[in-house]
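Handoff note, outgoing to incoming analyst
You'll be picking up this chain. Sequence as last confirmed:
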Amino acid sequence: MGIIHRAAIVLLLATACCLEPRGTSAEPPSFVNDVEPVLTRFGCNSGGCHGKLAGQNGFRLSLRGYAPEADHAALATEEYGRRIGGLDPAESLLLLKATGGLPHGGGRLFAHDSAAARTLCDWIAAGAPGPVADERRVVAVSVSPKEIVLAPGEVRQLVVAATWSDGAETEVTALARFHSNDAAYATVSAEGVVRGEQYGEVAVVVSYAGLVDTVVISSPFPQEVAAERFVARRNLVDDHVMEKLRALHIPPADECDDATFLRRLMLDLVGTLPDPEEVRAFLADASPDKRSLLVERLLERSEFTDFWTRELSDLLQNRKERDHDVRGVKGVRSFHAWLRGQVAANRPWNALVRDVLTARDATPAVGWWIVTVGEKQAVESEAADSAAQAFLGVRIGCARCHNHPLEKYTQDDYYHFTAFFSRVALDRRPPVEGATLLLVGSRQQRDLERQKAGAEQELAKLEAPTGDGGQPADQGQPADPAQIEAKKKQIAQLGGEIERARIAPVTATQPRTGRQLPPQGLDRRAAEIADGADPRERLAEWMISPDNPAFAAAIVNRLWKHFFAVGLVEPVDDLRATNPPSNAPLLAALAGEFVRSGHDLRHVMRLMVNSRTYQLASDTTAANVNDRRFHSHYYPRRLPAEVLADAIAKATAVPDAFAGAPEGTRAIQLPGPQADSYFLTTFGRSDRVTACACERSGDVTLPQLLHLQNSDTILGKIRREDGTLARLLTATAAGPAGPLIEGLFLATVSRLPQPAERAAVDAALSGADRGEGACDLLWALLNAKEFTFNH
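Most recent structure output, in case you need it:
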């Protein structure tokens, strides 16, 4: 007897023997709308239980119910239906384990008389019906209230409602799942009771039936802040930041001094320390608008182009492909030079992205495709994931295998999106034979074109008889007319097949269902692709459209993190409904301003660095020391690897040398990450293997500290005969130590020493060996947090 027949008999017995059957007028529970939510609410199909890839103890469910057909089979037909079999549904293996009647690795999940148990029992009693294709579905989930103000220790019940495809709305709080994005600020129980824990703000995420909503929990600090502390504002950045700080009772810091601003801005905007002469001139300048004028000068400097070319090279993964280097350094340099031209010309971001997404043949922007596609077919590669993450700030990789657990994206959504990439093919060539080409066409079309080209070569040989070695024969033998005709017919037939392949519908295969899915944006809007057209053109149109808010928000959030150390959304490339911005009105305002400016990156940079918020001091008070998200003060962070390397080189006047790079090349000018540098690797440069911003590390590690303190390279730069120290010692040998001290401070921390510092150092240098004392001072300054951090 087959498994399905045995399972059917078991279900019939269970139905007939149910002790408390549902009334005849009641509809049986829906597997998708009633049973799956129970399995999800109590974690049965979570990644830590039966929802993981290998299942648990031989029982596997799809992660959070993304494949209901497979889940129904696992429950109702696998193992002869033993999981729901028996004379009494309440005594089935499924119910006994969940209610603690039998040993269960997951423990007791709910009581035997609970609503969840009743749902499962009624479903089994009704014959365990499976998914129904045209039944109603949940189309939206909402939580109320949307915003809650709680003092630490206070609690509030959340209420969750589901909106259905037929327009109905029902409360589903009991089956929803709740999660706090930071339990240090607020916790939430499985029943939806939220509790404030400490002062600050956090989002609580609510999920049901694969859909999500969020509620913001605010706990303002108890101490009121004088209203005048929030009055000084320069632009829309300050308007939104100060309003958030005012609502949370967090006082902003005072404005930073001129020396701090000069150093901060130059490191952030051009990746370069100011010269000592620049510091003195800026401090002496009494004009009230000198800060904004400095911004304009820096935006036009060549170092700005160098630095932001490096930033875009990280984002667009400009590197040699893998270790075997199909593309070679030449391709990396070509892409780098192209990006540098885009930055120098202030090319609008939307135009640059369009050029990358639609690159073909051997244009420099093909470099992005060579790295992201790799040696796979485009639809199977990382290209779709990288495009979404780099240009939309969205991580869709989870949906390659299952519905995204924290977002709306389904597995179908993922493969609809990858269909845009299905016409991309790389014609790989070793560097000595020319650049790798990006061709547009389906795999079948390319195979047919190769066959046709081969047939045409064979025809040419038949029509022009040759002798050995391909040279004309003295006595040419006439070709067989039948062969020539057959070959012409084959060529014509291949031509027709090529045309049919060229105009065939653009699709990608959904591996779980086998369905062919057409191109569709992540907003689920269908994309019309003309016969034979490159689907990437429609992808670019959809992605860069002003109607796609994620495009502007993604790059604006990256810029915000660059200048303010913490993104409005963190991680910076993980924008999703369950990870709301720390200041949503600010992100929306900046994104709107970016679009209105014509996608001008410099315009947004100018807006950010001219704000009062950017120019706040990094000093904290007891009232704002715990703020890590709302920008009440400037957040110090370690300099990026290349910027720190260049800073040491400039402070000591000893440039670095990089193999394969022209003499005098600075670290921020390197085209790719292939330069052999222990320093850059140790200090966390990006390998550019993926689109994830996490590839670049700003962490402080023990090897970094040991290198700065003990490296022969660093000490050699300090003692170099033609370096900064030697020059200053020579220039001040006959006089007091003051100019020497000032020169070292200006060369490293870009400021003059404080009176107490000057006195202490002057006393230390008053001994017989001024040179050794000055060497120790320069070593100490290079190892100071004030030097290695931007503050």
